[in-house]
Write a structure and sequence with these properties.
The protein has helices at 26-31, 36-42, and strands spanning 18-22, 49-55, 62-68, 74-85, 89-97, 104-112, 119-125. It has 127 residues and is mainly beta. It has a single domain, classed as Alpha-D-Glucose-1,6-Bisphosphate, Chain A, domain 4, CATH 3.30.530. It has a seven-stranded antiparallel beta sheet.
């Protein structure tokens, strides 16, 4: 019997890059990641709330965020800041429970660019 762990794949996974442009300066978009009060205002899908957030915004600092569904179910995401280079780059790890998967862990790199007062924001896990 072949188990998934036994299969060696020559294919190297490519990073998934997601870009979004905000009509705001790069400094402001970067700052939105820097405190619990900021994160509570936007870090959840539409219809969800963020009743609890802990942000220790420094390399090695912890970020823990609770997203609450409209039905009252909590989804926690916890991670550690790895690199903070204002206003250009933010690298952190994250993991969570409660997403129908047993547990998810990722490393994310955020790149903030300024283009005439607008901020193209690139998000790439593990880049």
């Amino acid at each position: 019997m072949v188990r998934t762990n036994d299969v060696k794949s020559p294919i190297k996974p490519e990073p998934l890059v997601i870009s979004r442009t905000f009509p705001a300066p790069r400094d402001l978009v970067f700052k939105a990641w820097s405190s619990a009060e900021h994160m509570k205002r936007w870090f959840s899908p539409e219809g969800y709330s963020v009743p609890e957030a802990e942000v220790d915004f420094r390399p090695g600092g912890v970020c823990a965020i609770c997203m609450r569904s409209p039905e009252g179910q909590d989804f926690w995401s916890r991670g550690v800041y790895v690199e903070i280079s204002p206003p250009d780059r933010l690298v952190f790890t994250t993991g969570g429970r409660g997403w129908r998967l047993a547990e998810v862990h990722r490393s994310y790199h955020r790149h903030f660019r300024d283009r005439r007062g607008r901020n193209p924001y690139d998000r790439a896990p593990g880049l």
